[in-house]
Amino acid sequence: MNSALMLRRFICVNASATLSSVTSSPRKKPLIFLGSPQVSVTVLEALFDASSAPNSSFEVAGIVTQPPARRDRGRKVLPSPVAQYALEKGLPSDLIFSPEKAGDEAFLSTLRDLQPELCVTAAYGNILPTKFLNIPLHGTVNIHPSLLPLYRGAAPVQRALQDGVEETGVSLAFTVRKLDAGAVIASTSFQVVDQIKAPELLSLLFSEGSKLLIRELPSIFDGSAKSKAVPQDDSKATLAPKIAPDEAWLSFDQEAFILHNKVRAFAGWPGTRAKVLVLDDKSGQQNELELKIITTRICQSTEVLNGEQDYVTFKKGSLVFPCGGGTALEVLEVQLPGKKAIDATAFWNGLRGQKLKKL
């Protein structure tokens, strides 16, 4: 009997200790991440790293991303970069959601079952309806690559570079129904160097935005972020509309600085293009070429402008295009359709003495 009594006491003590250890480890707060392109992966990676820390109070409970689409030259149907990364990190596929619209009722029902305390968006690519925004306990926050209220919209980095801004930044803001108009929790500003292109700047801003997010997560979860967030001044808002493919064409009637900024802004997609005429004086033949303009700089010398204003010259490794207002644009790198990008020297040598005329 004594042995049986001791055994019962041992079991009770151990059960009590086990129960105590379970209750002393609070459930981690579920966080849902929404993002799609490669730049979003930077944010998701930061969230996974932070959630795996010993003292982390949250976990990435699910991913929402754009549906699989045709990508790359093979045109294979592939999951978004965010979905691919989440799978590589071991997130179960049934926790990766790709609804056509974020307002789909079946998707929203599943999201409610996950009981997220917070949703984080970074270049997700879909409009979030009120029914979605009402689900997470602490709301939804967005990493937006501009200094809000400037450049609200789909292409903030591209439009900022196109405008030739000398300063930009990244904002962490609450998401509301009005486009990019929520109160700003935090922001960081950066000086914009003259040669930086959109893909590079976009990557930098989302990297810094990830740091802002991780820094501010405790205040978002404890609710203090809502009280300190600064409402945007709508009277100072500017828009950054989506880029249309036909904006890619360069017009050399414009001044060189406008064209240089456009090349930087549209690098990656849709790129910038120009039409030129190749003239062979010996045979009298003319051949129209379409060039993708990859890298440029503003010409600091006006010597090259003497003579014919319609002809492209070559100077110190660059193709010099006369532009509006007596300015000139140096083109350092070009690409012919279906070919690899080459530097201006290689392109000029390939002309073999033929003349080049801008159109």
TrEMBL record:
Q: Which organism is it from?
A: Brassica oleracea var. oleracea
At the highest ranks, the source species' classification is:
Eukaryota, Viridiplantae, Streptophyta, Embryophyta, Tracheophyta
Coiled coil ranges (UniProt) are: none
Q: Which HAMAP family match?
A: Formyl_trans
Q: Which UniProt keywords apply?
A: Protein biosynthesis, Transferase
In this protein, which residues make up the domain named Formyl transferase C-terminal? Answer: 242-351
Q: Which terms does the record give in the GO molecular function aspect?
A: methionyl-tRNA formyltransferase activity
Q: Which CDD domains match?
A: FMT_core_Met-tRNA-FMT_N, Met_tRNA_FMT_C
- What is the protein name stated in its UniProt record? Methionyl-tRNA formyltransferase, mitochondrial
